[in-house]
Q: What sequence folds into this?
């Protein structure tokens, strides 16, 4: 749903920007783009595709939930909602008038590292929307009434994604408790209390701190004329000043884990099937190991022929569903293994089945056929992402902002194609160790008093004050 | 760096054109009004072409070759509506089992072989159709089609796969039944369709699934999976000529049975004031209340179809009236909307939102109010025009992917509509006038005969709801029975 936040529960759907280029049989069409930076620091990436009369616009701000102010978890995402309210020359919801009302649409999402706003519009509205994006970058205005009402919307979003679904609190806890020091421990959606504490003043400060041209990347993909685009970009963005203040950056490092930790979490009594999760701390997506970790993820859980599905869901029937996710970020990332149990199965059975698959990756190199299959799956999913202008624009944004170089939109797949069976085995041995493992068991509330496990494997809660 | 000039007048495009790269751009106050749009470009949609094989299989190919991808979908023109109440979920299990083993390939081999080609294959039943969908790199379509045809024509329906799939379905249900939104949708179908087809959960109930045996599955497959009850749609990087040749190669010798295709005639209830229900499902642990207003509505071939979808667009979408009143104005939900689910025999209309339990009654009232206003008030042209644009834009965006294209073309083919309807969509939407909406809503969306379901922590909204409605039924979630129209277990626990 619109103005969504992305968290790990759905992040597996969005392996954006981790891949591309060619294999033996299928060529990845190169994405030809232009790259220019205005004197005020705004980076502008553009790619022409006239196959349909529409344009996708993205504005990526290099600020995410890791930059939430102290005691304000969820703030970057709440702020994202406020960006659809008024500006100096736009009334609240005017973005919708300029997009939805003319046959386009708009949305935005907040992740740990970035906040992304985007529109898909009929191409004759490109100039209009460039004006509007410049408006909310340069002159956001905040009205108390709108702020309070939108904050309530975000609190409903919290309830809808964390409280109402049976496994909402499970995925929330996985992220929250998997980091000890890094602000990634604050789930992007935040908490009802921290959201309630947010003020209009916080909004103003956040906008002036992070919403500046030298912290933004504008991406335009679709039906337009490049020279005309440059003129419009100059007209609407070039006069936005670059502030003299430095851009604050998170410098906290997550220390290596030093031993297994175990957590028991409780959902409501609507949790009919327990769940287990395992997280390993892994390095930044810029690391040399990220391609091999991504391939390990595909081998473990993409499709019904994947190892976790075959073992836990199909053969042992110990799980209702399984997943893995190489959730790589700008700083430290997490490699997740999760299983929702089948009826009558015990968390310990699912945990040992997951660990057996980890062990297999460590002990035996994947076969050439299995590796080839995973590579084909990766190419096909990247191609599918690029069926639309919006998909292409997001691939460009991800390469430019998260990987630091838009050219990687065309080179990342080569890295994935170069991954060998030995690489997968090596990263499995390096990161999937008992010392680097946090294990989560998720049970219904009714099990809290009766379950022996809830007593035995509870360790100290590692989450410190900031995240609540 | 930039030089700032306080100049209110926006420079014209002509003067901007004189500024070249690298030269300081003249800065100015941002202009106060959005620049107007340029002239629109017209949309070119791919044209579907079709032929029918001698065995009755209808083939539709729609080519679009920007990406080296192909989607192929086989639609069987029978879905969950053929299930009896007792065996609810049979059609969906049958469809799902196709990819769980053929006479020559195990379930694991099917998955491995398709995924090695960079593809995936899925099968399931919907209402009115059962589908097998293949998505693959176009360079690999040949070997992928061989597997695709194998699963359609030669499923093994092994006992162990049936048992395994049943267990999976029961586990999936256990998860769904913990979600207020899913429960509300299950209950809503029973309220409007009662014990008729379309009333049961598509994937069965905890009681019906164990009753489904191999014979039932083989019977469903034998009865409905035949070339003269099927449509094959291929979309993407594929010429019509190649598409037809592939279809001929893999489905040309699919025999048409000698017996007649059974004629199915389905009669479903119509929502009337006398059978309206206001139902609360009490789920004390629900993290939110799910509010859903529901009634029967037009079928897909109704002459009112476009009046219906435009009326729905007034209510639904981000800036539709429901979301505007419930989310934007009041902050009561992350999203509110409605849908007109048109089907072969009888469609349904529903409007829904999730909200904190305390607001359940307020959101219910707002939802019904907005639906009622469609029949009592007028829609101004200034409101209608953007809602039509939004509807048309959404339609066009859905066609951007192969999957969306195949879905849309497949749906037209399934309901026997002309495939050129895809190019008439815009004109058909534009034809709808404000008076049409009022008439449509009065005839089809009367709230006096619209039922309401609220699933959540009843103590937080029931008193307020009882002030709005004289008769509110309350069913504790533990006593809910999805197998019958009453929705209540005949012999309640304790």
A:
């Amino acid at each position: 749903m619109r103005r969504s936040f992305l968290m790990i529960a759905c992040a597996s759907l969005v392996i954006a920007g981790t891949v591309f280029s060619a294999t033996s049989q299928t060529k990845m069409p190169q994405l030809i783009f232009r790259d220019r930076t205005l004197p005020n620091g705004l980076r502008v990436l553009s790619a022409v595709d006239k196959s349909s009369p529409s344009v996708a616009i993205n504005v990526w701000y290099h600020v995410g939930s890791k930059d939430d102010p102290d005691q304000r978890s969820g703030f970057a995402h709440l702020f994202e909602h406020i960006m659809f309210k008024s500006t100096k020359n736009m009334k609240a919801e005017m973005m919708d008038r300029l997009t939805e009302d003319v046959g386009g649409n708009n949305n935005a999402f907040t992740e740990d590292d970035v906040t992304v706003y985007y529109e898909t519009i009929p191409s004759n509205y490109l100039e209009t929307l460039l004006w509007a994006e410049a408006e909310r970058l340069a002159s956001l205005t905040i009205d108390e009434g709108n702020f309070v009402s939108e904050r309530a919307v975000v609190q409903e979003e919290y309830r809808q994604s964390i409280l109402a679904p049976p496994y909402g609190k499970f995925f929330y806890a996985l992220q929250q408790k998997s980091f000890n020091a890094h602000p990634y421990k604050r789930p992007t959606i935040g908490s009802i209390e921290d959201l309630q504490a947010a003020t209009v003043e916080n909004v103003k400060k956040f906008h002036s701190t992070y919403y500046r041209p030298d912290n933004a990347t504008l991406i335009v993909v679709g039906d337009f004329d490049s020279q005309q685009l440059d003129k419009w970009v100059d007209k609407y963005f070039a006069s936005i000043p670059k502030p003299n203040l430095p851009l604050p950056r998170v410098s906290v490092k997550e220390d290596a884990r030093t031993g297994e930790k175990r957590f028991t979490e409780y959902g409501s009594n609507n949790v009919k099937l327990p769940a287990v999760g395992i997280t390993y701390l892994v390095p930044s997506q810029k690391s040399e190991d990220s391609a091999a970790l991504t391939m390990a993820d595909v081998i473990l859980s993409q499709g019904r022929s994947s190892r976790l599905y075959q073992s836990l869901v199909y053969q042992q029937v110990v799980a209702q569903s399984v997943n893995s996710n190489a959730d790589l970020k700008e700083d430290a990332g997490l490699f997740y293994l999760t299983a929702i149990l089948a009826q009558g199965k015990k968390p310990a059975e699912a945990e040992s089945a997951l660990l057996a698959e980890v062990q297999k990756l460590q002990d035996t190199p994947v076969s050439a056929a299995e590796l080839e299959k995973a590579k084909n799956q990766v190419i096909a999913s990247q191609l599918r992402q690029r069926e639309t202008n919006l998909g292409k624009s997001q691939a460009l944004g991800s390469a430019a902002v998260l990987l630091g170089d838009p050219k990687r939109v065309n080179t990342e797949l080569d890295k994935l194609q170069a991954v060998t069976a030995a690489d997968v085995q090596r990263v499995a041995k390096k990161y999937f160790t008992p010392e680097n493992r946090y294990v989560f068991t998720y049970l219904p509330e009714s099990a809290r008093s009766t379950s022996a496990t809830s007593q035995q494997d509870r360790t100290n809660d590692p989450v410190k004050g900031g995240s609540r | 760096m930039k030089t700032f000039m306080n100049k209110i007048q926006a420079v014209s495009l002509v003067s901007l054109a004189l500024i070249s790269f690298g030269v300081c751009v003249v800065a100015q106050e941002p202009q106060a009004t959005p620049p107007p749009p340029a002239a629109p470009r017209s949309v070119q949609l791919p044209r579907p072409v079709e032929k029918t094989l001698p065995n009755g299989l209808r083939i539709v190919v729609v080519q679009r070759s920007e990406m080296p991808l192909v989607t192929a979908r086989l639609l069987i023109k029978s879905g969950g509506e053929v299930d009896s109440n007792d065996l609810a979920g049979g059609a969906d299990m049958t469809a799902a089992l196709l990819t769980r083993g053929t006479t020559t390939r195990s379930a694991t081999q099917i998955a491995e072989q398709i995924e090695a080609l960079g593809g995936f294959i899925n099968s399931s039943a919907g209402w009115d159709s059962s589908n097998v969908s293949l998505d693959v790199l176009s360079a690999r379509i040949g070997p992928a089609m061989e597997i695709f045809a194998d699963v359609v024509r030669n499923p093994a329906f092994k006992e162990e796969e049936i048992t395994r799939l049943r267990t999976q379905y029961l586990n999936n249900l256990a998860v769904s039944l913990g979600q207020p939104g899913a429960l509300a949708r299950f209950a809503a179908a029973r309220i409007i369709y009662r014990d008729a087809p379309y009333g049961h959960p598509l994937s069965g109930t905890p009681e019906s699934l164990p009753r489904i045996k191999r014979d039932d599955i083989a019977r469903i497959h034998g009865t409905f999976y035949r070339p003269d009850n099927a449509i094959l749609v291929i979309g993407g990087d594929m010429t019509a000529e190649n598409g037809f040749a592939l279809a001929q190669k893999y489905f040309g010798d699919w025999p048409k049975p000698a017996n007649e295709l059974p004629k199915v005639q389905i009669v479903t209830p119509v929502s009337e004031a006398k059978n309206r229900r206001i139902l609360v499902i009490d789920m004390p642990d629900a993290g939110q209340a799910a509010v859903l207003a529901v009634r029967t509505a037009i079928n897909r071939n109704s002459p009112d179809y476009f009046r219906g979808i435009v009326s729905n667009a007034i209510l639904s979408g981000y800036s539709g009236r429901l979301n505007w009143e419930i989310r934007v104005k009041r902050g009561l939900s992350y999203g509110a909307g409605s849908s007109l689910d048109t089907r072969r025999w009888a469609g349904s209309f529903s409007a829904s939102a999730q909200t904190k339990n305390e607001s359940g009654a307020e959101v219910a009232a707002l939802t019904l109010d907005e639906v009622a206003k469609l029949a009592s008030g007028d829609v101004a042209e200034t409101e209608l025009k953007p809602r039509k644009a939004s509807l048309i834009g959404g339609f066009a965006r859905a066609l951007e992917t192969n999957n969306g294209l195949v879905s849309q073309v497949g749906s037209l083919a399934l309901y026997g509509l002309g495939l050129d309807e895809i190019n008439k969509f815009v004109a058909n939407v534009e034809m709808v006038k404000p008076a049409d909406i009022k008439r449509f809503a009065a005839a089809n969306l009367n709230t006096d005969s619209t039922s309401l379901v609220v699933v959540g922590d009843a103590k937080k909204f029931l008193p307020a709801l009882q002030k709005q409605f004289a008769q509110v039924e309350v069913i504790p979630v533990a006593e809910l029975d999805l197998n019958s129209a009453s929705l209540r277990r005949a012999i309640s626990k304790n």
Remarks:
- The domain at 49-251 of chain B is CATH 3.30.830.10 (Cytochrome Bc1 Complex; Chain A, domain 1).
- Chain B touches chain A through 97 residues (CB under 8 Å).
